[in-house]
Backbone:
């Protein structure tokens, strides 16, 4: 199983380097609601209209997993070890979901390659 980070999803949606790896992972992937919200916000910031955003995001075709109490607690637990890397709440939410599901976190954020959190991480570029 793969948990897609917003950076990886945006790379896929925008045809950026590494998009092929995300495309290939979609059949076995999920995305957390926090990261899904981040994607919507980033596309809106770029001036992408609501209809186009809806079409783009539907291309992900993977389940959106609600951010629940277990993920909130796991995200908070990751804060001390990830703070020096500057990870956001959305980053930690993705990692927490991957940890809870025993999945691989798929990201375009190169700094994640240096993390040692006991979570499998794959950087797409």
Residues:
């Amino acid at each position: 199983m793969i948990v897609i980070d917003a950076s990886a999803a945006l790379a896929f949606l925008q045809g950026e380097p590494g998009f092929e790896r995300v495309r290939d992972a979609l059949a076995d992937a999920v995305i957390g609601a926090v990261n899904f919200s981040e994607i919507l916000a980033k596309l809106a910031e770029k001036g992408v209209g609501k209809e186009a955003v809806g079409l783009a995001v539907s291309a992900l075709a993977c389940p959106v997993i609600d951010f629940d109490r277990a993920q909130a607690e796991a995200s908070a637990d990751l804060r001390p070890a990830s703070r020096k890397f500057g990870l956001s709440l959305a980053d930690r939410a993705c990692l927490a979901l991957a940890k809870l599901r025993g999945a691989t976190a798929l990201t375009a954020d190169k700094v994640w390659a240096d993390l040692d959190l006991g979570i499998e991480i794959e950087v797409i570029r």
